[in-house]
Amino acid sequence: MITTNMDAPVPTRIEVARPFPPLTYLAPPGLQPGQRVRVKVRNAATLGVVLGPDPDPPKVKLRPVDSVLDPFPLLPPRLWELLEFAARYYGCGLAHLLPLCLPPAVEADWETLLPSGQRLGEAREAGRWDLLAEAGRAWHEGALALPGLFHRRGLRGAGLTEVRLTGQPHPARVTPAQARVIFALEGAGGALLEGPLLEASQAGASVLATLERHGLVARVRRMDLLSQKRELDEPDKRVELNGEQRQAVAAVTPGAFGVHLLYGVTGSGKTEVYLELAERTLAAGRRVLWLVPEIGLTTRLLSRLEARFPGRVAVGHAGLNATEKQADVLRLLQDDAPLFVGVRNAVLAPLRDLGLIVVDEEQEGSYKSEEHPRIHARDLAVKRGQLEGCPVVLGSATPSLESWQAANAGRYRLLRLRDRPAGVDLPTVKVVDLRESFKEERRKVVFSRQLLEGLGETLARREQSMLLLNRRGFENFWMCRACGRTFECPHCSVTLTYHKGAFRLRCHLCGYESVPPEVCIHCGAEHIRGVGEGTEQIEDQLRTLFPAARILRLDRDTTTRRGSLEAGLLAAELGEVDILVGTQMLAKGHNFPNLTLVGILNADLGLKIPDFRAAERTFQLLTQVAGRAGRAELKGRVLLQTYSPDHPAIIHAVAQDFEAFAREELPYREALGYPPFSAMSLYRSEGDTPGEALEPLRQLRLALETVPGLRILGPLEAPIARVKDRYRMQMILKAATRGPLGEAMRRAPLVPGGAVTLDRDPLSFGV
Ligand SMILES: [Zn+2]
Ligand SMILES: [Zn+2]
């Protein structure tokens, strides 16, 4: 029997994404931190999150909350702890982080029955939030099943099922509803996800079932779709682990926090180790979080996971639409998928009782968010492992120097895989000194003689080549020979890039574009010249040099459509491409069995960036690309064109020797006090004038000057001083440990939406 709770509403701190800090509202007593509510902010309905009772409410008339959205906090308690940590660390609000865990469309169904036979809604009406909180705790602990807890709004049928026309002849007569389904499918090119299809055709699931019975349509689960693309793959057979792999698995203690750095060259079998650990964890009834840098390049992994753990894998990434994302998260909340694979934000996925966290390619920059909140998924994965008390495995062939140094210092445990599988050799890497080529040919050389010969030979053997140039467009910028001036974006302090196909000069920062002028915009002279070739020009030149070759370019300009990168990679894998040209998006984790020549056109491009990580990034990129060559039975070779063959990053990349690179780079970092031997925060501000951008940072500097152990650099103009007509300033905080940086945040808390933004542990200082 539920008794009516007559307790009056209590002042409660509630955070909304904007404004911030928290506001105080009147809310029913007994609400728990993490419960979502709807409140009015300046008369606009806004999603808010409960922080707890306000012991010292403002002495004004408080507004009540409009409604409570969750019967109890939907996030597992340890995940909520992780959010609290992340909010403090990255200087953002819980309301900014919560949507990354829980899409706003995910809502509990108040009709759900408690074991006592009461509906959640009845307890709400009676004000028994304490009862609900108790049920929530039991649910999170797995002690209470609440079937049907969630609304499946917009999720009619299974959101991850695709419906396809089978191509069977239509029967003479179909019902109007059936016809609408068929027309909708035909209009969409033959296939649609079930949810959108039913919406578009205004048909019910029974109509689909009938059509399926008649053999007119087929329903394919999304996961199976991914597997079907992999028909050319070797079957996902279980591989016998070698000695090193078994040792690595044995070194990871189940059920205890510890960070393990799994270091092994490409092809050394890191995935086998992850799979074994995942199997062990699932067998123990716990859950696995598996992070990858980019989901578009991991269809192979997904099909392997689905083959090994059928029906138990859920996927989350930015490429999914809102419905699919919602379906994903619901599967996690309903405990329907104990293994979750995803990119950056998946580190905050609402899985409970984690037993293993895998971060593959841990060095990848894509784990760090480039927008507010600027979280780093790898770092949060380590923190989450600590809170959950479970092992964390970071894997890489070229670890970040942060993780490598942590292993050197004994904070992480180093697990090595030295062997490549039998019959697979490292490719041979040869340096082509572009200074020599210049002397030979007396002009700037894009394709050296050696590279042209290599391309010719590879084509003749009907094998594949890949050419990498980390610069898109046709020509990097235009310059006037008469006055020497370049053509800059009118809104940003960068030069415009020429795109020949589109016949436009484009700004890669703000998207501004203009028709290329025929005369210099500065002096009117007719001597305009393009400087610095990009991928578009490389493709152009290759078509002239090798007219019979099938050439495919993959860069951000050719892969704007969803799925186009995957389609291009698949075509290359199926052998439909002879020469693949592209930017660094070619470097990552896919496998072309017929690829035997990799050409790096200008290995120096990344070295010129004024950033202390330039050498590390260049080394990683070159090593990764080199690793693409000759992964199957065919021996691969790499031609690396460079003007600086003596640079350590180049020398060690040629030898494919990460440890030698780290030995040379780490002392340099230490001597100059750069990470991993220090911690940094980057504060930025913008304004309509340079002065307006400078002022808040100047104030901040005054507030922080007395923080012990803190070095403050700036404020100074940002490397790109103006973007989209906004002037940019920055200030860097540096300290030997993280302590003073945290103290700085306490002393001068940021106002979200204010003039100053913070990038904790910044990876990039350029943009
Ligand atoms: Zn000029
Ligand atoms: Zn611009």
Structure, briefly:
The chain is 32% helix and 22% strand. It has 23 helices and 30 strands. α5 (176-187) packs across α6 and α19 (614-626) packs parallel to α20.
pLDDT < 50 runs, ≥5 residues: 1-5, 154-159, 223-234
Spatial separation of the terminal alpha carbons:
61 Å
Widest sheet, order of strands:
11-12-10-13-14-9-15
Q: What proportion of the residues is helical, as a percent range?
A: 25-40%
Question: Mind describing the biggest β-sheet?
Answer: 7 strands, parallel
What is the number of strand segments?
30
The ligands bound in this entry are: zinc ion
Radius of gyration: 29 Å
Strand content range: 15-25%
Describe this entry's structure for a reader.
- α1 packs across α13 (377-388), α9 packs across α10 and α20 (648-655) runs antiparallel to α21 (658-672).
- The protein has a seven-stranded parallel beta sheet, sandwiched between helices. Strands 16-26-25-17-24-23 form a six-stranded parallel beta sheet, sandwiched between helices.
- It is α/β, with parallel strands linked by helices and 767 residues long.
- It starts with 9 loop residues before the first strand and ends in a 7-residue tail after the last strand.
- It is 32% helix and 22% strand.
- It is built from 23 helices and 30 strands.
- One zinc ion binds next to loops.
Quickly list its features:
globular, 30 strands, disordered N terminus, 23 helices, 6-stranded parallel sheet, 22% strand, 767 residues
